[in-house]
Amino acid sequence: MADWTEMTAADLGRGIAKGEIDPAALCETYLDKIANHPMRDRIYARVTPERARAEAAAASDRAARGARLSPLDGVPVSWKDLFDTAGTATEAGSKLLEGRVPDRDAWVLRNATALGLVCLGKTHMSELAFSGLGLNPVTATSPCVNDEDAVSGGSSSGAAASVAYGLAAAAVGSDTGGSVRVPSAWNDLVGLKTTSGRIPLTGVVPLAAKFDTIGPLCQSVEDAALMLAAIEGQGAMGLPRGSLKGRRFGALQTIVMDDLRDTPAKAYADALDRLRKAGAEIVDVTCPEIQGPMDNAGILYTSEAWGTWGDQITAKGDVMFPPIRERFEGGAGHKASDYVAAWLQLDQVRQVWAQKMAGFDAVLCPTVPNMPPNVDRLMSDNDYYVTENLLTLRNTRVGNLMGLAVVTLPTGTASCGISLMGRADGEESLLAVAVAAERALGE
Question: What domains are defined for the chain?
Fold first, then answer.
C-alpha cells in the first residue's frame, strides 16, 4: 500500500473519492506520524487531534454517501500559528501573545473547514512573522528538510516543514515579504503568494496589513490551485494541461541577480535551460525603477509593523527575541511624511512595472539568493544574522512591493527555487503557466 503521507493533497482527494482512502484512517495516519516524529515539537506549536478526528469522521460519512464537499474533502492540512482557531491558542510565535485564545476561526479556516479540509494543528513560525529565516529561539526553530541543522525559512517555517516531512498534506501560511516562498524554496515545495487584498485577512494576526497575504505551501501546483480555491471558499479550480510552447517569460536582471550564491545561481541557470528546451521564450528584462521602493522597503514595512505592534512591544518587548524586537523598533523613528512619500513612489513604480512586463506570461528570478543558514551560527554571529536575513528576503520582496501574484517552484536542486511573478489578481493564469513549467522542470 502506498504511504499516504507521501501523496499529494490532490491524489489523496482522488483516493477518497474512489473509496480507496478513508478520511478517518487517513487522519489517524497523520496524527500517529506527528506524535512519533522526532521533529514534531520543532514543527507543530499545537496539534488539534479532537478537532481533526471530528472533521475526518464527518468527511468519512460524506464520502460514504457520495456527498463530498470539494476535491480536498477529508484531506488533512496544517495552519500557521497566526490564523485564529476557535478554542486553540494562536500566538504568532511570540510570548507577547502567550495565552491568546480566539473564539472564532479565521475567515480562511472557516472556508476550508466548510469544504471538508481537516485541521491537524498550528505550526511554528518566525516571531510575529517578521523574519525570512524561520529562526525562533522563543518558541521553536523548525528544521530544513535538506539540513536539520539549518533554518527552514520564514516566516512560515513550520508550515513548510510540516509538508516536507510528511506531517501534513498541505499547509496554509502568510507572505508579507517572502514568508510563503522562502520556506517553500528551501524545502523543495511549491509556494503561492497571492495578490495583496485578494483574500480577506479577517482573523489573521497582522504584521503589515498593506502587504500581508495568505497562500498555500504544497507538493504540486495542482495542490496549490486546490488549496487556493478551498481557502477562498470556491471548492475547485481547474488547471489546463498546456505546454510552454509560445509562452514568453522575462528574466529579471535588476537587483535579483546581485550577490547570488553559487548553488542557487547554477540551479537557476539550469532551470532556465529546461524551460527553453520545453519551448519557452525567455528574454532578459530590467526595471531600474524598482530600486527606489526596494531602498524604501524599511520605511514601508517597519513603519506599519511598529504602528501595529509598538504599544505592546513598548509595554513588554523584553519577552521577544531581541533581533526581532529591534526590527520592529526600527519603525519608530520614521516620519509620517516619509511613509506617505514612499507609498506615492511605490504606486507610481507599480504602474511602470505593469507596463514593462505586460508582454510576458511571467517574470522569472531565483526565489532566494542564498542557501538555508546554520542555526548555531545565526544565534552566535549577529552580523551574519542581519546579512542573511536581509539577503533571504530580497528577491521575494519584489513581488510584494509590486503587488503581484507569485509562485515558486522547485528546480530539482535541493533548497533552490525559481519564481514566476505574474500579474496582480492573475493567480489563475499564473497557475496555468506554472503547471507547464513544473512539468518541464521535473523532466
Answer: 4-231 (3.90.1300.10), 248-295+326-441 (3.90.1300.10)
